[in-house]
Amino acid sequence: MDETRGFVLRQTGESTDPTVVCESCGEVIRDYRLAWVMWRDVLGEAVTKPTVLCKKNGCNSQLRYIEFASMELGDYLINLCRNAGMKSDEDFRAALEFANLGDQI
Ligand SMILES: [Zn+2]
Hints:
The chain is 26% helix and 26% strand. By secondary structure, it is of the alpha+beta class. The chain has one domain (6-42, 49-104). The strands form two sheets. A three-stranded antiparallel beta sheet has the order 4-3-5. Strand 1 (6-12) and strand 2 form a beta hairpin. The chain is globular. The site of zinc ion (ZN) has 8 residues, from strand 4.
């Protein structure tokens, strides 16, 4: 497993940025609509690591992932936030406003 791909933290200058990197081609995903999260659906396994693959370079269409379960990256991120307790529009708006503050520093 390549530790520099998937859901990672990238150090860029003074900041540390949560980033999604395609686990096949290594491209940084900058448009959530152009990526999928895939996983091997194994009966009886309660926890599994997801694999992030881009659509842009066709990585999500590779034969080796054909039997994987999948969801679009946008759906994954929304469900991740909800499962971490971000449940209301207010929660999302407050988190987005706080994140945007970081861009102004
Ligand atoms: Zn890719």
